[in-house]
Amino acid sequence: MLLWAGGGLGFIFLMTALGAATVFFFHKSEAGKFQTVFLGFAAGVMIAASIWSLLIPSIEETEARGGIGWIPAAFGFILGVLFLLGLDRLIPHLHPGSNMIEGLPSASKRTTLLVSAVTLHNLPEGMAVGLSFALAAQHGSDPELYAAAAALALGIGIQNFPEGAAVALPLRREGCSVSKAFWLGTLSGAVEPVAGFITVMLAGLFIPVMPWLLAFSAGAMMYVVVEELIPEAHLGEHSHAGTLGVMSGFLVMMVLDVALG
Questions:
Q1: Cα–Cα distance measured from residue 212 to residue 197, given in angstroms and rounded to the nearest whole number
Q2: Do 59 and 69 meet the contact criterion of CB atoms below 8 Å apart?
Q3: pTM, whole model, 2 decimals?
Q4: Residue 89 lies in a domain
Q5: Count of domains for the chain
Q6: Rg (CA), the chain
Q7: 236 burial class (0-12, 13-18, 19+ CB within 10 angstroms)?
Q8: How far, in Å, CA of 77 to CA of 115, rounded?
Q9: How far is 223 from 219, CA to CA, in rounded Å?
């Protein structure tokens, strides 16, 4: 299981780094237009992943154990939303295009606060991938679950490319050097493999509540989508680009999950 999870988590981190590398190719005056598309695509992937890779497996796992499927799916989802809401209120962070610091007061630099915002919201993605591989390991005789976990890692990795760009490009616009914007964009994704490995290592202790954890991760991801990604993808005059990005991301993740799962 650790080998599979390590491969999946390593892949999603690599894709963040590749996305951050786009800062080497775009002039900072062009960054805003591409950022809306990138954010929209990431939002679409996360919506589809929350449904097919997390909520549906949560319901199916509960029903396979003789339980009522919607109970852990619904209440785990709510807990995930509340968890991210709490972190949003506590951790100081700043979103691109805004001068209002969210969370507790902080004297940190603007670039640090910008990276904190994305790092905070990468947490549920790492958890989701880790949980998917942990669920597959608990049903070791079912290769479809490993395929589904790989599909989720592939989908999250694909959306991490635009997400990495959506971190590095605004940092470049804020005045960071190209190399600094790249490294900060890359490091913003480091929380994903860390969160994923911790989840995998602890999953054996939480087998009875696995459906709740899957739904929890879905709720956390949906909070990020609704609170941050979609609003930021529709700022300014490029709203159609953001909308098409959401639709494209949803379609890609849906196809991946159904075809490989």
A1: 18
A2: yes
A3: 0.84
A4: yes
A5: 1
A6: 18
A7: middle
A8: 26
A9: 6
- Any residues with CB less than 8 A from the CB of 49 and at least 6 apart, and which? 128, 152, 155, 156, 221, 253, 257
- Which residue shows structure tokens 């879905």? 218
Instruction: Indicate whether 31 belongs to any domain.
Output: no
Which residues on adjacent β-strands are paired with residue 102? 93
**251 close to 172: Cβ distance less than 8 angstroms:** no
> For residue 228, what are its two tokens?
């941050």
User: Is residue 28 included in any domain, yes or no?
Assistant: no
Both tokens assigned to 83: 């968890």
SS (H, E, C) 16-75: HHHHHHHHHCCCHHHHHHHHHHHHHHHHHHHHHHHHHHHHHHHHHHHHHCCCCCHHHHHH
Structure tokens at 145: 């679950």
Angle, to 10 degrees, between the axis of helix 210-224 and the axis of helix 56-64? 170
Q: How far apart are CA 98 and CA 93, in angstroms?
A: 10
Domain membership of residue 214 as a residue range = 2-22+45-260
The DSSP symbol for 100 reads: P
Instruction: Give me the pLDDT at residue 3, please.
Output: 75
* 34 is a domain residue: no
Residue with tokens 């050097």: 177
In this structure, the chain runs to a length of: 261
> Tens place of pLDDT for every residue, the chain, 261 residues?
667 778 899 999 999 999 999 888 866 555 556 667 778 888 899 999 999 999 999 999 999 999 999 999 999 999 999 999 898 888 876 666 666 777 767 666 666 666 777 777 788 889 999 998 888 888 775 788 888 889 999 989 988 887 788 778 778 877 788 898 899 889 888 889 999 888 888 877 778 899 999 999 999 999 988 888 888 776 555 567 788 888 999 999 999 888 876
